[in-house]
Design a protein that fits this description.
With 433 residues, this protein is mainly alpha-helical. It folds into three domains: 1-19 and 45-131; 132-233 and 243-279, no CATH class; 321-432, Alpha Horseshoe (Serine Threonine Protein Phosphatase 5, Tetratricopeptide repeat), CATH 1.25.40.10. The chain contains eleven helices and no strands. The chain has helices spanning 2-19, 28-34, 45-167, 176-199, 205-231, 241-309, 331-349, 353-366, 372-384, 389-402, 407-432. The chain is elongated. The two termini are 105 Å apart.
Length: 433
């Protein structure tokens, strides 16, 4: 409004002096064209100027109204912008708070994930170590079995070759050579005895096998030399056949003794194989125990997580299925009882009371020494059925037999026995009449 007044005053001050100024006559027709009048009335110049001023004032007033409307719209837009800015800042603060909470939860999740990754890495390291040890033991056992088989084969080959040599010994060497051979056999028996003694030392078995290989090679070289020496005396063997026959029998007995000792060595090798199998079984049992321990640890962690997420409750007053977690029974058994309790409650809440009673009875029978919660709910179900009050009292007694401090079962029993106590005085009054 102030702007309108200022504009009008300014226009009046500018146009009034012009009204008194001398105008040229050539401009009169133009003024008459702007505001035509009748032929009887002569136009007044002052009136024409006044009309022009009024027209200008009307235009300025319209322009000022437009400006006022635009100013009002701008003010309204500024208010809306301020409101939107305030809402945006409030929303930004809310987003900042939510971001901080999410960041904290993400940090916790990252920490738990890092702990889990560390545990998985430790388990993988233990598994790799166990696999390496198992592979080493298997390789050592295989190598030992191969070396023993090779030794047995060489000893059998040597026994065969010695038998062939003993058949070719000449009669001339009957005395000295027989004595030497007997001494050699005694040495062999002593060597075999020593081998049997050293066979029990498993830690030094590989070194002993190497020594046996070297001794066998030396003996093979000696036998080859003896074969070359005996080859020239084969012509005289026919003459000493009778004398040698008795000695062959003795040698056969000694070979039998050697065969028996070889059998004993094989038995010991078999025992070693059995011990290796027993060790493998122990390793398998240890792996199974570790796997069972890991499963139990996972179950314990799962139960701890579930207990942390559940609200606090009193085992002597709560009727929730989560109370089964306080039972001192295996974790897998607790999960089964919780599932049975929830299934029975779904039937109970659906007003299928008979089926719910059967489900609660099955849950109680699954663990009759601990599941007093199922006994209590079975009592509630029996209470809602007709002519089943005594059965409901029996279920309450079963719950209290497991946990005498369980208050819901105590209240159920009091509620069920109250009508019976009220009915007794009534029956007495009827009898007195």
């Amino acid at each position: 409004m102030f702007r309108k007044t200022a504009l009008l005053v300014l226009l009046v001050m500018c146009l009034v002096p012009c009204a008194f100024a001398d105008e040229p006559e050539a401009e009169a027709p133009a003024t008459q064209e702007a505001a035509p009048i009748s032929q009887d009335e002569q136009p007044d110049e002052m009136t024409l100027r006044e009309n022009a001023v009024n027209q200008k004032a009307a235009e300025l007033e319209a322009l000022s109204e437009q400006l006022s409307g635009r100013e009002a719209r701008l003010v309204q837009q500024e208010k809306e912008f301020a409101a939107r800015a305030s809402a945006l800042s409030l929303k930004s603060r809310e987003i900042s708070g939510t971001s901080a909470v999410l960041l904290g939860r993400e940090t916790q999740m990252n920490k738990r994930e890092m702990d889990l990754m560390a545990r998985e890495a430790e388990l993988a390291r233990r598994e790799m170590t166990f696999a390496q040890e198992s592979q080493k033991f298997t390789e050592a056992s295989s190598a030992l079995a191969g070396r023993e088989a090779d030794l047995a084969r060489r000893e059998a080959d040597l026994a065969g070759r010695e038998g062939e040599l003993n058949a070719k010994i000449s009669a001339k060497e009957a005395a000295d050579n027989l004595t030497a051979r007997e001494a050699d056999l005694v040495k062999r028996e002593a060597a075999l005895t020593e081998r049997e003694a050293t066979g029990n030392r498993l830690s030094a078995l590989e070194a002993e096998l190497n020594e046996r290989d070297a001794a066998l090679k030396a003996r093979e070289e000696a036998v080859s030399g003896r074969e070359e020496a005996v080859a020239g005396q084969e012509k005289e063997l026919s003459e000493a056949t009778g004398k040698v026959s008795t000695h062959e029998a003795e040698l056969a007995q000694k070979e039998a003794a050697l065969t028996a000792r070889e059998s004993e060595l094989e038995a010991r090798s078999k025992k070693l194989t059995e011990d290796t199998s027993a060790l493998n079984e122990r390793d398998a049992a240890l792996a199974k125990r570790e796997a069972d321990a890991a499963v139990k640890a996972a179950e314990v962690q799962e139960l701890e997580t579930l207990i942390k997420e559940l609200p606090a409750f009193d085992p002597n007053s709560s009727t929730e299925a989560a109370m089964i977690l306080t039972y001192k029974i295996p974790a897998a058994r607790r999960r089964e009882l919780i599932a049975m309790q929830r299934e029975a409650y779904s039937r109970y809440s659906a007003n299928r009371i008979t089926q719910a009673l059967e489900s609660y009875s099955a849950a109680y029978e699954a663990e009759p020494n601990a599941n007093y919660l199922a006994a209590y709910w079975a009592g509630l179900a029996a209470e809602r059925l007709r002519n089943r009050r005594d059965e409901a009292v029996s279920w309450a007694d079963r719950a209290l037999a497991i946990n005498p401090d369980y208050r819901p079962a105590q209240e159920l029993k009091r509620r069920l026995e109250a009508p019976a106590r009220q009915a007794q005085p009534q029956r007495r009054r009827n009898t007195s009449r």
